[in-house]
């Protein structure tokens, strides 16, 4: 079956994109509002943009209201965030932080997420996250201001926290990290079954 995107509604396009582009890594992003409210929310349109310099990116799909989400507004106002990698033990709290709360209400408090100070930025860190990237906003790319349109934030990585339990002395132990992925609909993927293959030598 072929779907021509020009003849589809934004909702239909969204379902075809998120249902097929799976699993997607999840950026659980904490920010601080200009009024000092600690915000955190997950985004599954996310990856690495560059390693030299180290840059991450995440995309906001614009809400139907047309207003930016708290994360992007806070990033614009205060320029800093922490990108957390969540493991399966944090799934329930991560999912709770999806709730559409008022801007003056903290998802840390709502979802009872244990926090701690960050190393180089002001937003709080999730205490139980095994890997986190402390970032400053580099640039925002606006592709569309329409509902379901996209805005991409490029984030300069300032510092990286790796819990000793998942650091093997050379790299992050993938079997111990057990990071979450996002599937289509309400489904998440759990990285319990890993297969290791060496790259071919030509």
From TrEMBL:
Superkingdom: Bacteria
Pfam families on file: Flavin_Reduct
Required cofactor names: FMN
The keyword Oxidoreductase is assigned to this record: yes
Domain Flavin reductase like: 19-169
EC number: 1.5.1.-
Top EC category: oxidoreductase
SUPFAM superfamilies: FMN-binding split barrel
Keyword terms, alphabetized: Flavoprotein, FMN, Oxidoreductase
GO terms for MF: FMN binding; oxidoreductase activity, acting on the CH-NH group of donors, NAD or NADP as acceptor
InterPro entries, per database record: Flavin_Rdtase-like_dom, Split_barrel_FMN-bd
Similarity comment text for this entry: Belongs to the flavoredoxin family.
This protein's name: Flavin reductase family protein
């Amino acid at each position: 079956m072929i779907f021509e995107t020009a003849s589809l509604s934004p909702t239909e396009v969204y379902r075809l994109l998120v249902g097929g582009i799976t699993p997607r890594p999840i950026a659980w992003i904490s920010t601080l509002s200009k009024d000092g409210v600690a915000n955190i929310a997950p985004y599954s349109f996310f990856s690495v943009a560059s390693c030299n310099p180290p840059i991450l990116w995440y995309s906001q799909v614009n809400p139907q209201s047309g207003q930016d989400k708290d994360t992007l507004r806070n990033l614009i106002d205060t320029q800093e965030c922490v990108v957390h990698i969540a493991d399966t033990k944090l799934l329930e709290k991560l999912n709770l932080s999806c709730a559409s709360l008022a801007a003056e209400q903290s998802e840390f408090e709502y979802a009872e997420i244990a926090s701690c100070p960050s190393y180089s930025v002001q937003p709080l860190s999730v205490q139980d996250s095994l890997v986190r990237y402390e970032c400053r906003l580099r640039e925002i790319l606006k592709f569309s201001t329409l509902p379901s349109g996209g805005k991409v934030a490029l984030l300069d990585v300032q510092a990286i926290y790796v819990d000793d339990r998942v650091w093997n002395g050379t790299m992050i132990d993938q079997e111990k990290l057990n990071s979450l992925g996002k599937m289509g609909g309400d489904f998440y993927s759990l990285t319990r079954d890993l297969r290791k293959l060496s790259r071919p030598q030509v």
